[in-house]
Amino acid sequence: MNKKQLFEQIKSKKSFLCVGLDPVLENIPQHLLSHEDPVFEFNRQIIDATKDLCVAYKPNTAFYESGGLKGWESLLKTWAYIPEDIFSIADAKRGDIGNTSAMYADAFFNKEKSGMSFDAITVAPYMGRDSVSPFLKYENKWVILLAATSNEGHNDFQLLQTPKGKLYEQVIRISSTWADSERLMYVVGATRGSEFANIRSLAPDSFLLVPGVGAQGGSLAEVCEFGLNDHCGLLVNSARGIIYAGKGEDFAEKAREEALKLQLEMQQILEEAELI
Amino acid sequence: MNKKQLFEQIKSKKSFLCVGLDPVLENIPQHLLSHEDPVFEFNRQIIDATKDLCVAYKPNTAFYESGGLKGWESLLKTWAYIPEDIFSIADAKRGDIGNTSAMYADAFFNKEKSGMSFDAITVAPYMGRDSVSPFLKYENKWVILLAATSNEGHNDFQLLQTPKGKLYEQVIRISSTWADSERLMYVVGATRGSEFANIRSLAPDSFLLVPGVGAQGGSLAEVCEFGLNDHCGLLVNSARGIIYAGKGEDFAEKAREEALKLQLEMQQILEEAELI
Q1: EC (chains A, B) (predicted)?
Q2: CATH number of the domain at A3-272, out of 3.20.20.70, 3.40.1010.10, 3.20.20.10, 3.40.50.150?
C-alpha cells in the first residue's frame, strides 16, 4: 500500500487508528482456550469487530514468538486474516548487518519464502543504513524506524546530545537521506508530547506510528495538536486499551466499543483539521 | 552457564570459538535437500563436526524466520541439538518496551513456553534500560548488548559524539550500571580493530562477542592483541568461513578443517597469554 492509498483509507474510514494485536494467553477470555488456536481465534474476533474502524493492524512479534512454534503459526494465520485493504505492520523491531536484514525482509515481506507479506516492519536504527536498506528494496513496502519510543528507557540513549541535536533527531535526519516519506515512517511514542512539534518539523511529510495512547498514558489530542499534517501523517496505535476492554464472551463487542470511541475522536480531529 | 564455567570451557577446549549457524537454503549442499529438514540436517552435521573445537554456537534468528514456520521449527531443533555444555546464543537483536521484552525473554529463555532456552540473547540498546532488564531476570542467562557492530552502518549512529564520548561508548558505560560482567556481554565487531583497546578499557571484565572474523575481513590477531583479558573475555564468531567451507558431501569435514585452523590459532594465543 502506498502513501496515497493509505491517506485514502484514512479519509474513507474517518480514522487513523492502528489496532495492536498483542495477545497474551493468560489474558485472553477463558472460553477461547478450548479453541485449537486460542490466540488466532482471539485475533480473528478482534479483527472482525474492528475492521471498519481502523486502517492498520500491528501484531507485535514478541507475543507470538513467546509461544514457540504454535505462536509463530498464530502469527502466520493472523497476517493472512488481516483484510488486504488494511495496512499491516509487523512490529518486529529487527535490524542486523545487510545480508542478515535481507533474511528478515524475506521473513516479513516475502510470502513465497515465509508465508507472510506485511506492508511494513518496524526496525531499530542502531546498526545504521545497511541494516535498513534491505527492507527498502521491496516495492510498496515500508520501514518504520524507531525514533522516539514511548518507554522510560527512551531517556537512556535517544535523548543523548550529539553535535547536531539529540540522537533521535539525528536518526530522523540521517535516515531521511536513505528513503523518502513514501517508504519510511517513524515510531514516535504518544508519551513524547513536548517533542512532537519538533519531530514533525524534522519529518514534515512522514507518517508517524504512535504507540502509547491508552495503557501507557499518552494523549490523542496532544499527539494530534502537533503531529497532524496535510495527509494526516499519523497512525495511532492502541493495543491493550482495545483488545482487553472486556474479559468475557463479549470481549469483541467491548473491543469494538473502545475502538469506536477512538474512531469518533479521530473523526472529529480530522474534520476540525479539514482533512475530511 | 556462568562466567566461571564459560572460562573453564575455554581452558578445557583451548578455544574461544563461536560457530555461527546461519544456513541459507540456497547455499547448503545439494545432497541435503532431500532431507525432511535440510537446514536442521546441515546444522546437525556442522555441530557434530565442530563441537569439540568451539565453546559456543550462535544461530542468527533471521536465517530461520525467513523460512517461515518450517524455519522456526529448524531453529527449535537446532537449539535442542546444541550440547548442554556448549554456550548457546540466540542472535536475535531484539529489544522492545518492558512488557514486550519480557515476551522475547520467554521466547528465547523459557523452554516451557517456547521450547527453547538459550544461554544468551543479543539485544539492541536503542530503547534503553527497560528494554533490556526483562532478559536479566533469568538466572544464569546473559544479555549480549550491541555496542560497536561490524558493519558499515556502524558509522551512522554508533560513532556520534555525545558529551561523554561516542554513542557506543555511552552504551557500554550506561549499561554497565544495569548489570555486571556476570550477566552482560557486548557485541564488538572484529572489524573495529583500532577501537578494541578503548572498548576493553571501558569493559575490562566483560566478555565480548566478536563477529566479523573471516567473510567480513576482521583479524583474529588484532582482536586478541587488544581484547584478551585475564579470563579470555572473548568469544570470536565465525559463520560463513566455517559453514560454507565446502559445498559437497564433505562439507562437514571442510567445516571442521576451518574450525580447527581457528582453534589452533586460538590455542597459541591462549598459551602465549599464559591463560592455559
Answers
A1: 4.1.1.23
A2: 3.20.20.70
If we measure between CA atoms, which residue out of B234, B232, B243 comes closest to residue B274? B232
CB A236 within 8 A of CB A31: no
Does residue B215 carry a pLDDT above 70? no
Helix axes A3-13, A251-272, angle to 10 degrees: 100
- Per-residue model confidence (pLDDT) at position B225: 92
B37 CB neighbours in chain A (<8 A) are: none
Strands A161-162 and B208-210: unpaired
Give the whole-angstrom CA distance, residue A147 versus residue A58. 17
Sort B61 into a burial class: Cβ within 10 Å, 0-12 / 13-18 / 19+: buried
Rounded Cα distance, A121 and A141, in Å: 8
From the CA of A8, how many Å to the nearest CA of chain B? 31
Residue range A61-93, pLDDT digits in tens: 999 999 999 999 999 999 999 999 999 999 999
User: Within 13 A of A231's CA, how many CA atoms are on the CB side?
Assistant: 15
Q: How far is Cα B178 from Cα B184, in angstroms, rounded to an integer?
A: 9
**What is the rounded radius of gyration, in angstroms, for the C-alpha atoms of chain A?**
18
Given an 8 Å threshold on Cβ–Cβ distance, is A69 in contact with B68? no
Please answer yes or no on whether B68 and A116 come within 8 Å at the CB atom. yes
Output the pLDDT for position A194.
74
Residue A175 Cα distances to A169, A180, A237, angstroms = 10, 9, 23
Condensed to tens digits (0 to 9), the pLDDT of residues A100-141 reads 999 999 999 999 999 999 999 999 999 999 999 999 999 999
Q: Which residues of chain A have pLDDT under 70?
A: 215
Q: Report the catalytic residues of B.
A: 93
pLDDT level of residue B196 (50, 70, 90 thresholds): confident
A165-166 and A161-162 strand pairing: antiparallel
Contact criterion met (CB < 8 Å) for A107 and B62: yes
Residue from the list A71, A130, A167 with its beta carbon closest to the beta carbon of B157: A167
Nearest C-alpha neighbor of B79 from the set A65, A59, A122, A116: A65
Beta B87-94 vs B161-162: how paired, if at all? unpaired
